[in-house]
Amino acid sequence: MKKLLVIFIVFLPFFMFAVIGQNGISIAPDGTLLKWEEGNWDFFIMHKTLVARITGEATTSESNPQADTCIDQDFGSTYTLTSKHIPEDAEIDRAFLVWLSTQDPANLNGLTDNSVTLNFKNASHPEITLSRVISASFQGNFAATTTGNFEYEALNMQGSQTGDMGVYTYRVEVSDFMKEIIAMGEAAGMKPGEALYGNYNVRNMECSNHQNYLTTSGLVGGWFMPFVYTSAHINPKKIYFYNGLAAYHNQTNTINVSGFELPAEAIIKLGLVVFEGDPGLATTTYEPEGLYISSQSNPDNFISLYNDCNPSHYMNEDSNHFYYTEIFNSISSVYGWDDNYNYYYWCVGNPSNPTDPTNPLEYAIDADILMFDTGPASPFYGEFNKGDSMFNLKISVNQDQIYTNFLAVSVDTAKNWSDADTDPENPDTGDTSDSDPADTADSSDSSDTADTDSADTDDQSDTVDSSDSDDQSSKKEDSENTNPEQGELHGECYSDRTCNAGLVCNSHNICKKEIKFSGCSALLF
């Protein structure tokens, strides 16, 4: 699909990305801070589930499908990296393979699985292959809840209402693996990025689908690979990695993200990986699901963020009502490297039909790449300023139990991207030059016929809806409406929670403009 914006998380131990490492930035096992501050850097995150819906025993509604089976360890799952994800000259700086799984409750005091197998097969030169057993430097256990370590974190949830449970994650560097692929490709006359195009398969991860997990619709398991690369096609950026495993349920929490410095009119891009989100699961008796962001200069002014992959909804149940956003839904919004310049993204999974076989869910994993502009054409203008070194994310979770894992932040200077792609007088004409994602769609996983989940297939392609740019004149007009009637801007919403044309009813029952710009949506509060 298309358009822009954001996503996040939230139950058990108190959690803040910003308390981990110096200024919150992750510290790799070799002691280095995971930050990149000078150069033409960018990042990308491959991701795949390792659980599936086979028996249907954990699913109570087709609008809320649940995984119930661990994928066969001998086959694993495969992600296909293509030219739409990274440019052909991409050189890897660092890459990490991360896996998260459930522990058999009968072995909750035992050791966790600290090794998996990573396989690669090049797309155009299938003779170029590589296979390695990827192991952490130590093997952790569940003797106690372990958090804050980059290489290994675990949550011991003994004594829960449905029985003992445990979730753990490993993060292991695989930079040498990726660089070896590049070397083999270059020996065959390929450019470094071309060498990296192909199928990445992860297998041999232990996983438990014990009834304790199925009872709570809590089966989780999957892998992802965040990597940082450099390319002549990429604008200069600063990139920062943060890690933090925690569980959240029916809770709102504010996370302070720090350790960077914003340039003027920055483009802020987030890469967030969260496990165990489900589509179509909400009730008005719990906290409304959603993600809100506020700036350093105005920390109490939170703005709700959403996009087509993670849509905004209104719920009215037994006279209780609220807006919420399907943030934790096993559906990810993904940007390719060239999409930075037109705010084009696509959805992995179909938010309108979670059981769509042509664009299947990645069960129990969200790996969203999310981006917003802070320049003059955006509702964030004046909120995020040069020199800012932090922002706040307010995260709200409804019925889901969510496991946070990883956050990447990149910042760079806006280069009038929206001016190039959108006519301010007719913003719906934006992004007409976008190529059809099908032209470069991922091939099916030829190396693993048992893995039916091809990566990022069936990109839901349609034109960008980027109307109603919120400029300074419109803000002035808004402020002059000092005595609004019901249904008008700043007026009370109608009894059915609607407003006049062009307005939406916010969580305070006040009519506000819905801002859409360059594919980005934000509901102002």
Secondary-structure map:
Layout: E1 35-36, E2 41-49, E3 51-52, E4 69-70, E5 77-81, E6 91-102, E7 115-122, E8 129-135, E9 152-157, E10 165-173, H1 175-187, H2 192-196, E11 198-203, H3 211-215, E12 222-230, E13 238-258, E14 266-275, E15 290-295, E16 303-306, E17 312-317, E18 320-325, E19 332-334, E20 346-348, E21 365-373, E22 390-413, H4 417-421, H5 472-480, E23 503-505, E24 511-517, E25 520-523
What is this entry, summarized?
This protein has 525 residues and is mostly beta strands. The protein has 5 helices and 25 strands.
Helix-strand sequence: EEEEEEEEEEHHEHEEEEEEEEEEEHHEEE
Estimate the helix proportion, in percent. Answer: under 10%
Q: Determine the strand fraction and express it as a percent band.
A: 25-35%
Q: Which consecutive residue ranges, at least 5 long each, have pLDDT under 50?
A: 1-22, 416-481, 515-525
Tally the helices.
5
Mean pLDDT: 77
Structural class assignment: mainly beta
Anisotropy-based shape: globular
Total count of strands: 25
Largest sheet: 10 strands, antiparallel
Using only CA atoms, what is the Rg?
22 Å
User: What's the end-to-end separation, in Å?
Assistant: 26 Å
Can you tell me about this structure?
Helix content is 7%, strand content 35%. Strands 1, 13, 14, 15, 16, 21, 22, 23, 24 and 25 form a ten-stranded antiparallel beta sheet that branches. Strands 2-12-6-10-9 form a five-stranded antiparallel beta sheet, covered by helices on one side. The chain has a four-stranded antiparallel beta sheet with strand order 5-11-7-8, covered by helices on one side. It has helices at residues 175-187, 192-196, 211-215, 417-421, 472-480, and strands at residues 35-36, 41-49, 51-52, 69-70, 77-81, 91-102, 115-122, 129-135, 152-157, 165-173, 198-203, 222-230, 238-258, 266-275, 290-295, 303-306, 312-317, 320-325, 332-334, 346-348, 365-373, 390-413, 503-505, 511-517, 520-523. The chain is mainly β. Residues 1-22, 416-481 and 515-525 have low confidence and may be disordered. The longest helix has 13 residues, at 175-187. Strand 24 and strand 25 form a beta hairpin.
